[in-house]
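Obj: model holo form, ligand = nicotinamide-adenine-dinucleotide.
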Amino acid sequence: MTEIAHFISGTPTPGTSGRSQDVFNPATGAAQNTVALASAAEVDAVVAVAKAAWPAWSKTPALRRARILDRFKAILWDRMDELARAISAEHGKTHDDALGEVTRGLEVVEFAVGAPTHLKGEFSENVGSGVDTHSIRQSLGVVAGITPFNFPAMVPMWMFPVALACGNTFVLKPSERDPSASLLIAAWLTEAGLPDGVFNVVQGDKEAVDALLHNPDVKAISFVGSTPIAQYIHATGTAQGKRVQALGGAKNHMIIMPDADLDMAASALMGAAFGSAGERCMAISVAVPVTDAVADALIEKLVPQIEALKVGPASDAASEMGPLVTAQHLAKVRGYIDGAEAQGARIVTDGRTFRQDKQGCENGYFIGGTLIDDVTEDMTCYRDEIFGPVLSVVRKPDYQAAVDLIHGHEYANGTAVFTRDGDVARSFSQDIEVGMVGINVPIPVPMAFHSFGGWKSSIFGDHAMHGMEGVRFYTRIKTTTTRWPTGMRADPQFTMPTLG
Ligand code: NAD
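Output (holo structure tokens):
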């Protein structure tokens, strides 16, 4: 087993803390590597490197910064396959799914290459006699990204392309469960011409995160992960005077109206609930059919498709759904199905009975697709984010009851309605209190030039990721008011100055 290192100042750098942890192959259940876990002192040293790189990088013309990112983008296109394989080896997702993840991340690089346009300022001539005003956005300094296991390439790419394009230097603390993708990204950024120290990776766990939160040279923190940790990051980071955007967990509902195309809705639910083994913050985990007749017809369509799901390792091109990420997570997901059964829900298809018989994968963290009917609001399987291939069905008699259900949940990341009725679709889009909305689109992940973020307990802080929200998060505004000698006043002014 080799130890997965940090990446500091353009070079892979072994850890010195003496602490490390195993990194598993979820498809086999075997530990394949270890990852270094940084001490607070190591984190402080990385931040110092990033701080030293900031003055020159922030003064580099935005066009030149963008060209480096453009070269990185070309490398990503060429080596997408290699990155996807590194993701699958530690996360477990299928190869095609990993390729999709890389593509969605790459789109943020494409957006960031437009930095010279995004950073254009504003100018007002003659705001007073002989006085002009202009506003510009400037970088913050060292910013940090703390990312979850479920998108080891895409979620970092929600952050650093925009941060770097805006002139910040970056310290990434990836998930310790799948840390390798971050090292490929770091090496390719260096190859693209990024100066040393501008992008760094520090591997680690809570100790590293706490060191970033308390280091005064870290000016902003972008976090994506579970809600309790997002809340902690936001509270601690803002108390330290930092900007924080912290995206948390989700429980995404999809309403199926009686006029919906049920074949389309069922097939959308299959991908949205079981793709990536349900380990997506935009996965649909609650189907809300309106009327019992719709529920019965929908379940009839879903059951054979769930039973036919090809669950297997990423090494098998036929696999449609891979394993869960760890043995602990598998136990947790199974526990939620046990709990649903004990609380009186009906297990329609039971993923707990799935056995993986592919040679070498018998001990992988596999579970089959699970459909649970007659779920009610008070059940734990409804209230909690399960983050596995488990679809709950909550039946509702009418549209308003379905909307009330969504509004009663603490999470508000994404949601969807399937309908042919334009009025229903329009009022859903306008009135629903959720950050990302799909109309006949099950996973409405905004494109890179829009911004990604939920509402309520799915986000802490007020800036979504990427798009212009990302540019605003990673810059601060400066407004300069200018007067030249012909407009100057000779007399001292002791009253509140006014222009005009
Ligand atoms: P997690 O919260 O366990 O970990 C996220 C990051 O926080 C990791 O880098 C981890 O090392 C660090 N961390 C973990 N425990 C910590 C602690 N006690 N103190 C400080 N740092 C800590 O999340 P995860 O299991 O890796 O990812 C899954 C979660 O992420 C799900 O809840 C999912 O909904 C959420 N997620 C949300 C979005 C979104 O955009 N809202 C996107 C992807 C994932």
